[in-house]
Amino acid sequence: RCHSGLAGKLCARSAAGSMRDALSLLDQAIAHGSGKVEEAQVREMLGSVDLDQLFSILDALLAGDAAALLRIADDMTARSLSFDAALQEMASLFTRLQIAQLAPRAIADDMPERSRVLELATALDPEFVQLAYQIAVHGRQELPLAPDEQAGFIMTLLRLHAFRPLLDGAAGTHPA
Predict the structure, then answer these.
(1) I need a surface site. Which of 23, 50, 92, 152 has the fewest CB within 10 A?
(2) Sign of CA dihedral 137, 57, 16, 151
(3) How many of the other CB atoms lie within 10 Å of CB of 132?
(4) Alpha-carbon distance 64 to 68, whole Å?
């Protein structure tokens, strides 16, 4: 029995449009969860990134903390999480942030992370969210070209860091 709509969405997204693959993933999730299909165990099974990690990335960007970005990437490597899926989820989060910025009434009241998304939408410039979306999408496309996926992911995070807006309004270069 599926207890989370997000678990089903994760299986569907991972199946990439193939009904046979989706059913196979659902069977695996049922077996993995001893009959229960819950978001956390499906994420673990698929190597998916949870929103807390993405929010940590955005917090590190807002703080201008490149070292924290590297620690997050190392943690994801240690947990064998998919960098491709992480960048896909990140682009999806930037989409939700932009919607919250430009059409906040379109954000569902029952969205689990609604308050956090609205908070970040206020903290980030709309122009940066557009650029960040492009960086995440292009970073995902560049993963196969990188020396390895971790290096490609790290460079994408550092690109986000390099192009983040100054929060104090000061001119010049970004602090390290």
Answers:
(1) 23
(2) positive
(3) 25
(4) 9
| φ, ψ for residue 47, nearest 5 deg | 75, 30
Determine contact, residues 117/83, Cβ cutoff 8 Å: no
Q: Give the pair of three-digit tokens for residue 14.
A: 């991972």
pLDDT digits (tens, 9 = 90+) for 83-95: 999 999 999 999 9
**Neighbour-count burial for 108-127, b at 16+ CB within 10 Å, e otherwise:** eeeeebeebbbebbeebeee
Query: What is the distance between the alpha carbons of residues 134 and 173, in angstroms, rounded to a whole number?
Result: 22
- pLDDT, tens only, 118-172: 999 999 999 999 999 999 999 999 999 999 999 999 999 999 999 987 755 444 4
**5-36 exposure pattern, b = at least 16 Cβ within 10 A, e = fewer:** ebbbebbbbbbeeeeeebeebbeebeebbeee
